[in-house]
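Below is how a single chain appears once it has passed through the pipeline. First comes the sequence as given, then the structure the pipeline wrote out for it. We keep one example in the README because the format questions we get most often are answered faster by looking than by reading.
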Amino acid sequence: MRRLARHCVPARSAGLAERLRGWTFWQSASCVCAFSALAGEPDVLAPWPEGKRIAMPRAEGDDLQFHWVASRAELRPGRFGILEPAAQAPDAGSGFDLILVPGLAFDLRGGRLGRGRGFYDRFLSNARGLRVGVCFEDQIVGDVPEEPHDLRMDFVVTPSAISRCGF
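Resulting structure:
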């Protein structure tokens, strides 16, 4: 897996956001669980989505708690330097239409390689909604190693394709 050059990220992110927003499941979704992109990750919230309730994660202890936010301006750097909502932002619970999930790598069976702390694994084990891996093409690999607690994605979205994951 080769890393995308930093200067390519904004254009590729825009292409991914456009593909995502043209997707039937996105168009019919009213509440979407999203994430703040780290360096090298796709930013699907630029521009901020219109007509959707957006829930963003906040690291609290070893878990992610999702809160409703109305704009990027409501986000501040959190414990790991990642933009997140304030603790007093409205709690979003655990039921969503779409759950957008970042990762270091994905396979087309829905496997996901995270950053190793298990935040998303714990969250996804109790969350309800369509799990959607969001990445660039170079993050698609043949096979992601799985552990018993790993949950597969239902779809993986890249700038060039939306893939329904096979089991």
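The mean pLDDT is 91.

See the next section for the split statistics.
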